[in-house]
Write a structure and sequence with these properties.
- 2 copies of one chain form a homodimer.
- The first copy, chain A, is mostly helical and 203 residues long.
- Chain A has 9 helices and no strands.
- In chain A, helix 1 crosses helix 2, helix 3 packs across helix 4 and helix 8 runs antiparallel to helix 9.
- At the A-B interface, helix 6, helix 7, helix 8 and helix 9 of A face helix 6, helix 7, helix 8 and helix 9 of B.
- The structure holds a DNA duplex (30 and 30 nucleotides).
DNA sequence: CCAGTAGGTTACTCGAAGTAAGTTACCTCC
DNA sequence: GGAGGTAACTTACTTCGAGTAACCTACTGG
């Protein structure tokens, strides 16, 4: 008995263990908050001892960064895929926003990490999160620039920041307003923000 | 020697000491980040021993909350004063925004606290900061509501969230763009966001 | 000048991050 | 199928900082 089944899997390959650690860590960080989460607890839940976490991620901060980074990558993939079929700037923006709202709806845990915890305190985590926003703003600014080469660069940047800020904030608000889904949230952002920029781009 | 001068002031009245502690704590938190800041260092810089901090603020978290709360109160005062002379919704919003951008320009330390650090990890600090935003969104939503009783409540809330999100994000961006002062930042927000809501309010 | 207390200190405990050094399961190649 | 090499893992610490118990001292009014 207990032959080839999976009663107690030990000794996994590195990559798999790493992924598993990220899963658990994301969960624990989201549950307890970064500070209150202890490496011992994460290790225990993974079913492994603490030094393994340090082996793979170097530090508690490193583990957090790992979680954030993974979420960031997934978000970028999703967004890029979503806007790949769009043609007008308006469509790009709308589809991108929708993808974002859908992503956070599905990955509540990761999202909790990105806001509550992750702004954390840890300087490098802040940088990592800023990286996500940068990703988004750059994308938006690039879209605007590509459709109107006359627009002031600084103004385009400002607009991108406004979109990202609005979106992030509205996503948070959606948690208190479950009746507002991704589609409606997207509409709100577009309704307010798009008008403001449309006549800059078109004219 | 060292007779009646002020070489070592000890034994201050409670309120004064408390204010001094908040000053130093704000500084140290902003400098090192919440996690890296140690109560021992803060105590030392204040020129007092650690248990005094605990006497007055209960915990490290309590001290942080104290700092945030003070900043919040100051910001609210400033904003309310700024919009007191305004008559139209547009004017209220513009003056309020301007007051905010000016406030963070003058209180960089407090602002650093409110974003980088304070989102911290500490659940109650997050609540406290959310309280600030709530303050702002409520104010904005109320203004809109007072000028157009027909507007959908949910939509008014969404708009308020969008304004706050935009503003916060743009304030951050201003740090990378020193040439963009409070006035220009206000203009950007108004230009993009106002148009979007103006034709909702006016009909 | 003595008593009461607001304001203050020293010297600890305890918990969690991080680490050094050793151990065991698994694979390979003879 | 056993030696032996190594990737995956553990035990048993050190260290550092938050929080606390118990004690002290400068200034007040009577």
């Amino acid at each position: 008995m207990t032959t080839t089944e999976e009663p107690r899997r030990k000794r996994m390959p590195k990559a798999q263990r790493k992924a598993q650690m990220l899963d658990i860590a994301e969960q624990v960080f989201a549950e307890r908050g970064y500070l209150a989460a202890s490496m011992d607890e994460i290790a225990e839940r993974v079913g492994v001892s603490k030094p393994m976490l340090y082996e793979y991620f170097g530090s508690k901060e490193g583990l957090l960064i790992g979680c954030i980074h993974r979420a960031r990558t997934e978000l970028l993939d999703r967004t890029q895929q979503a806007i790949s079929g769009a043609t007008t700037p308006e469509e790009i923006l709308r589809l991108g926003l929708l993808a974002f709202f859908e992503f956070i709806g599905e990955h509540k845990q990761a999202w909790a990490l990105l806001r509550q915890e992750a702004a954390v305190t840890v300087p490098s985590a802040v940088e990592e999160i800023e990286g996500i926003r940068r990703q988004q703003t750059d994308l938006i600014a690039a879209v605007i620039g590509s459709f109107d080469t006359d627009i002031d660069v600084v103004e385009a940047e400002a607009f991108a920041e406004i979109v990202v800020g609005s979106t992030e904030r509205l996503a948070l608000w959606c948690e208190r307003r479950p009746e507002v889904g991704p589609a409606l949230a997207t509409t709100y952002v577009m309704e307010v923000v798009w008008r403001g920029v449309a006549n800059r781009i078109t004219g």
